[in-house]
Amino acid sequence: MNMSPALTMILFLGTMTLSAASSSGGTDSGPPSLHGKNPHAVTADCSLCHVASMDKLRGWFVFPSTKRLLVSDPTTLCRNCHGVSFGHGIGKKPHMNRADLPLNADGTVNCALTCHDMHVSDVDDAAQQNFHLRLPHSKLCVSCHDK
Hints:
Blueprint: H1 5-22, H2 54-57, H3 64-67, H4 74-82, H5 111-115, H6 126-130, H7 137-140
């Protein structure tokens, strides 16, 4: 089924909104986790995603390459907890990338790296904060889409 980018985005945002609404019963404002903890929280256990220990990652000096070592590929990590088969852009090569968003080595979209930033914080845009968007929603989609 071939949908327009606008319809795809509407369906994606609707799904994300319903998912957020259904999981926002407590004070922990992140997504549910198969591990029972929100790995996106400031006090989260980094080892849910990262190879290095929490102490090492939060130490006074750590190489960026150490931070990037993950226990699995980013898409698998996301799906371990979210269980969502996004399909929106994953594995596709964008025709344009106006905001120079990070892509996989082969130039394809990866949900956890291209559109999302798991460590986004202190941003004014509520949707950006809630969905860990790399950029405000108004700027993110038009990086690759005309509309």
